[in-house]
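Subject: for your reference before the review

Hello V.,

The reviewers asked for a structural picture of the protein, and I figured it would be easier to keep everything in one thread rather than splitting it across files. Below is the amino acid sequence we used in the manuscript, unchanged from the supplementary table.
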Amino acid sequence: MKRHAGYLLLLVSFLSNSADVIQAGATQSTETPLSLSSQATAWGLTTEEWTRYRQLKQGERGIWSPSLDPLTTLGVEATTQAQRRKYADLLVEKEAQRVEKELAFQRAYDDAWKRRFPALTPVTEVNSTAVMPANRRLAVFVRQHCAACDTRVDTLLKAGTPLDIYLVDSQNDDTQLRRWAVAHHIDSARVRRREITLNHDGGRWLQYGKSRMPAVLEKQGDAWLPVLR
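And here is what came back from the structure prediction:
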């Protein structure tokens, strides 16, 4: 399977619902001074910076990257290194806040499951202690906001299996791919060694039957076959 080098360290996105935030301020003519100031403050920006972001969304950047958040948009279109550093710092801070919120809710969800259904497990995990062939490599198809996908990927990562990970709903947006990798603590050293590749799906999931998420395949001969749970 052809791998796609879609792991860009420069582009980071923050909110999973950034499209909703963008749409809320999509038309400048409807933004009152108070709402404009509030939206700018929420992202750590001045009203002037927010206005520039809205202007950029109306131009080429809005066509090329319609789902970019304000900080990434301003950082990509920055004209000086100082501006790039500023927006990168703001974005890293926002990303850390977002991830912590999501992890806190995931912990609460796990606790709720244990309280309410102590005799059941949410998903059946791969036996990470099983002996795997040294040349084994798996293709893993996942989507964002998928608890079963997160559990399966975490198990495979702990097992040390070489993985080609395909994000089926990334819309070929490197920012979303980067955000997913950060949230799942993908080891950048393993990425550099090509033990793990991060890819946009590009229709492969459909090619292999659009099976239920997560889908894990292993190459056997010339065929890719599903890996049983």
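For the response letter, the relevant points are probably these. The chain has two domains: 10-120, 138-226. The chain has a mean pLDDT of 74.

Happy to draft the paragraph if you're swamped.

O.
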